[in-house]
């Protein structure tokens, strides 16, 4: 699905594009109606999202112009103008829907999907090719009910082929349909993505290649094997490959979309950091306007500038997932829009209060979450079931909406009143909403409601022999992205190693100052920017490749997985990785030989190489060192340990060569 967003405020459009791209939409963006009109006339769009207040031609007039040209594409007006008269004008101009800023991402996504269902393409159908299934509603691909983890480009290519089973697509058409305008790939990018898609389908078990190459023409979906065609005839549906299934059940496994959700969150967090400097300048202008209003010296130009800033903040703060802050900006805009006679001392006091609240809320990074279309999920470990809340953190239906919008929720599990009371007293200084539990039973009950942003866990409790380590293991299996800080009176090495192996994010020995605990939590909730490094992993174990790709891509890495070492050199030159991960024992060419080839080539000699191996003997380790290995990780692999080692090789952490036996 290709969407066109027309919005002149970059701080509003950037997080929106990131969010919708995570839903596997192809997004083009235009900053004014003139350039948008050119795009709408030359490209096919499934939906247009349109701001009302645009430079030059406004959104209402643009909508009218499209309709007079018989453009039937669905149009959704996305604007901060919430007056009923504006809504009426929008619908009379030909808009199909009208959404006011700030908006809930989940509601906006639902409205987009509803409009797309009204068009030529039904999103509700499940697309089939034999036992290969693609569910557009949940962005899931499965083969024989097992999930396939595809990149966004691979997913879009497969969906396009399944929707148009007889059509031949040349490379330029695929570039136009799958890649957005701000991407500038060559036609070789299509070849690379097709090759990657075919490889993953083969690794999943497909014996017949669904994507057919017609040399000199392009690609199309191959006809089903003979036995599938017979099945189709029995269903009296001809030899087509496109079917709908209303009772399709979802897989229990996490789909590849989870990685895209997480990557979108990381991208929006980076955008938020970049937005901070502009935000402070905008707030300073508002403060200056209020100061002039207090002395009755507010000139029309400064007033208009302040009105424009307040209006833009409604959209940008809403797009970053801070609706309460956006509502404060709307109130500021309304006061500034009042007549000059009304803008006196009382209005200045009101504006000062609103601006102070706005500064308070925007001082802390919002807790981003990209909503899932599936709702909540549950995971069972032992006899306890924990429900995962998928609503945006900080904006759940809790009754404390305003407080949570500006605070992080930290859940502390400890039965020591000498620790709990100082923590409660310190929490407001860190803009933290602290919830507590004094035993593991009540802690598990609390964890069935919306999840906190971070957890602080003691390991020993006076009323039970059960260790907090049991709950730690359960939490890191069910909610691996939620930081857990462990508190313990035991600080010996064996205890620290045990905690680290279970996946804890930080370890503090008691007694610990509350300020230190909150400092650690704050650092965990505001991590360094995700790395966009490119990794090439070569291993003949397809199951391991799939697992590593699913765990590394959400961290921001661009992962290329290769199961056939005979294709190594072609993939090396195409992907140009920042780091190479090699299995030692592989058919054809082993990892030692591939590393020798890399290190002997002047162009690649400085490429970091990390070995993944089940061989722990000294001879194999010596061979790896001799050919230039930078690190050596023994299988079975723990992803957290592997990520730390990758970061070291990329220069993000202190550098040291280590060999350590890890366990799952």
From TrEMBL:
<keyword id="KW-0238">DNA-binding</keyword>
<feature type="compositionally biased region" description="Basic and acidic residues">
    <location>
        <begin position="227"/>
        <end position="238"/>
    </location>
</feature>
<feature type="domain" description="HPt">
    <location>
        <begin position="264"/>
        <end position="368"/>
    </location>
</feature>
<feature type="domain" description="Response regulatory">
    <location>
        <begin position="2"/>
        <end position="116"/>
    </location>
</feature>
<keyword id="KW-0614">Plasmid</keyword>
<dbReference type="InterPro" id="IPR036641">
    <property type="entry name" value="HPT_dom_sf"/>
</dbReference>
<dbReference type="InterPro" id="IPR001789">
    <property type="entry name" value="Sig_transdc_resp-reg_receiver"/>
</dbReference>
<dbReference type="Pfam" id="PF00072">
    <property type="entry name" value="Response_reg"/>
</dbReference>
<feature type="modified residue" description="4-aspartylphosphate">
    <location>
        <position position="51"/>
    </location>
</feature>
<dbReference type="Pfam" id="PF00486">
    <property type="entry name" value="Trans_reg_C"/>
</dbReference>
<dbReference type="GO" id="GO:0006355">
    <property type="term" value="P:regulation of DNA-templated transcription"/>
</dbReference>
<protein>
    <submittedName>
        <fullName>Multi-component transcriptional regulator, winged helix family protein</fullName>
    </submittedName>
</protein>
<dbReference type="InterPro" id="IPR001867">
    <property type="entry name" value="OmpR/PhoB-type_DNA-bd"/>
</dbReference>
<dbReference type="Pfam" id="PF01627">
    <property type="entry name" value="Hpt"/>
</dbReference>
<dbReference type="GO" id="GO:0000976">
    <property type="term" value="F:transcription cis-regulatory region binding"/>
</dbReference>
<dbReference type="InterPro" id="IPR011006">
    <property type="entry name" value="CheY-like_superfamily"/>
</dbReference>
<dbReference type="InterPro" id="IPR039420">
    <property type="entry name" value="WalR-like"/>
</dbReference>
<feature type="domain" description="Response regulatory">
    <location>
        <begin position="534"/>
        <end position="650"/>
    </location>
</feature>
<feature type="compositionally biased region" description="Basic and acidic residues">
    <location>
        <begin position="380"/>
        <end position="392"/>
    </location>
</feature>
<feature type="modified residue" description="4-aspartylphosphate">
    <location>
        <position position="458"/>
    </location>
</feature>
<dbReference type="InterPro" id="IPR008207">
    <property type="entry name" value="Sig_transdc_His_kin_Hpt_dom"/>
</dbReference>
<dbReference type="GO" id="GO:0005829">
    <property type="term" value="C:cytosol"/>
</dbReference>
<feature type="modified residue" description="Phosphohistidine">
    <location>
        <position position="311"/>
    </location>
</feature>
<feature type="region of interest" description="Disordered">
    <location>
        <begin position="227"/>
        <end position="256"/>
    </location>
</feature>
<feature type="domain" description="OmpR/PhoB-type">
    <location>
        <begin position="124"/>
        <end position="223"/>
    </location>
</feature>
<keyword id="KW-0597">Phosphoprotein</keyword>
<feature type="domain" description="Response regulatory">
    <location>
        <begin position="409"/>
        <end position="525"/>
    </location>
</feature>
<dbReference type="InterPro" id="IPR036388">
    <property type="entry name" value="WH-like_DNA-bd_sf"/>
</dbReference>
<feature type="modified residue" description="4-aspartylphosphate">
    <location>
        <position position="583"/>
    </location>
</feature>
<dbReference type="GO" id="GO:0000156">
    <property type="term" value="F:phosphorelay response regulator activity"/>
</dbReference>
<feature type="region of interest" description="Disordered">
    <location>
        <begin position="369"/>
        <end position="398"/>
    </location>
</feature>
<feature type="DNA-binding region" description="OmpR/PhoB-type">
    <location>
        <begin position="124"/>
        <end position="223"/>
    </location>
</feature>
<dbReference type="GO" id="GO:0032993">
    <property type="term" value="C:protein-DNA complex"/>
</dbReference>
């Amino acid at each position: 699905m290709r969407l066109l967003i027309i919005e002149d405020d970059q701080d509003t459009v950037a997080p929106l594009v990131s969010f919708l791209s995570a839903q596997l939409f192809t997004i083009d963006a235009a900053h004014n109606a003139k350039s948008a009109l050119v795009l709408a006339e030359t490209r096919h769009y499934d939906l247009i999202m349109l701001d009302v207040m645009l430079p030059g031609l406004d959104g209402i007039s643009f909508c009218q112009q499209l309709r007079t040209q018989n453009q039937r594409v669905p149009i959704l007006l996305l604007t901060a103008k919430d007056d009923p008269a504006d809504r009426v004008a929008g619908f009379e101009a030909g808009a199909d829907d009208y959404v006011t800023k700030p908006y809930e991402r989940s509601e906006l996504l639902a409205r987009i999907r509803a409009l797309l269902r009204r068009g030529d393409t039904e999103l509700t159908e499940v697309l089939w090719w034999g036992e290969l299934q693609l569910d557009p509603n949940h962005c899931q691909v499965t083969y024989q009910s097992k999930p396939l983890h595809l990149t966004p480009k691979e997913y879009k290519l497969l969906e396009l082929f399944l929707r148009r089973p007889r059509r031949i697509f040349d490379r330029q058409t695929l570039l136009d349909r799958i890649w957005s305008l701000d991407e500038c790939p060559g036609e070789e990018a299509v070849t690379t993505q097709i090759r990657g898609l075919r490889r993953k389908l083969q690794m999943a078990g497909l014996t017949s290649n669904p994507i057919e190459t017609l040399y000199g023409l392009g690609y199309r979906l191959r006809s089903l094997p003979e036995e599938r065609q017979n099945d189709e005839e029995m269903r009296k549906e001809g030899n087509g490959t496109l079917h709908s299934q209303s009772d399709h059940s979802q897989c229990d496994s996490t789909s590849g979309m989870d990685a895209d959700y997480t990557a979108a969150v990381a991208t929006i967090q980076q955008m938020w950091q970049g937005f901070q400097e502009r935000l402070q300048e905008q707030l300073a202008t508002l403060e200056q306007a209020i100061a002039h209003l207090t002395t009755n010296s507010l000139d029309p130009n400064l007033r208009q500038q302040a009105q424009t800033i307040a209006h833009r903040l409604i959209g940008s703060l809403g797009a970053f997932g801070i609706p309460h802050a956006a509502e404060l900006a709307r109130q500021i805009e309304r006061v500034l829009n009042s007549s000059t006679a009304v803008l006196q001392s009382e209005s200045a006091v009101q504006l000062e209060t609103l601006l102070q609240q706005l500064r308070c809320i925007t001082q802390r990074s919002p807790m981003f979450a990209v909503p899932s279309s599936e709702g909540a999920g549950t995971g069972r470990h032992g006899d306890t079931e924990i429900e995962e809340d998928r609503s945006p953190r900080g904006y759940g239906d809790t009754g404390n909406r305003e407080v949570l919008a500006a605070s992080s929720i930290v859940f502390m599990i400890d039965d020591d009143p000498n620790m709990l009371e100082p923590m409660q007293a310190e929490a407001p200084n860190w803009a933290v909403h602290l919830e507590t539990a004094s035993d593991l039973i009540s802690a598990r009950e609390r964890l069935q409601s919306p999840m906190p942003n971070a957890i602080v866990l003691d390991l020993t409790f006076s009323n039970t022999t059960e260790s907090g380590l049991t709950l730690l293991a359960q939490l890191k299996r069910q909610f691996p992205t939620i930081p857990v800080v462990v508190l313990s009176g035991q600080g010996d090495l064996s205890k620290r190693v045990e905690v680290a192996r279970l996946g804890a994010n930080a370890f503090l020995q008691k007694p610990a100052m509350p300020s230190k605990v909150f400092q650690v939590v704050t650092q965990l909730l505001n991590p360094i920017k995700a790395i966009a490094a490119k990794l090439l992993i070569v291993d003949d174990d397809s199951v391991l490749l799939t697992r590593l790709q699913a765990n590394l891509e959400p961290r921001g890495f661009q992962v290329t997985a290769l199961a056939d070492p005979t294709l190594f050199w072609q993939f090396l030159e195409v992907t140009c990785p920042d780091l190479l991960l090699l299995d030692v024992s592989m058919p054809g060419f082993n990892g030692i030989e591939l590393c020798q080839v890399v290190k002997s080539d002047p162009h690649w000699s400085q490429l970091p190489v990390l070995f993944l191996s089940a061989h722990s003997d000294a001879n194999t380790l010596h061979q790896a060192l001799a050919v230039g290995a930078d690190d050596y990780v023994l299988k079975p692999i723990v992803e957290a340990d592997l990520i730390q080692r990758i970061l070291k090789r990329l220069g993000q952490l202190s550098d040291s060569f280590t060999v350590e036996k890890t366990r799952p």
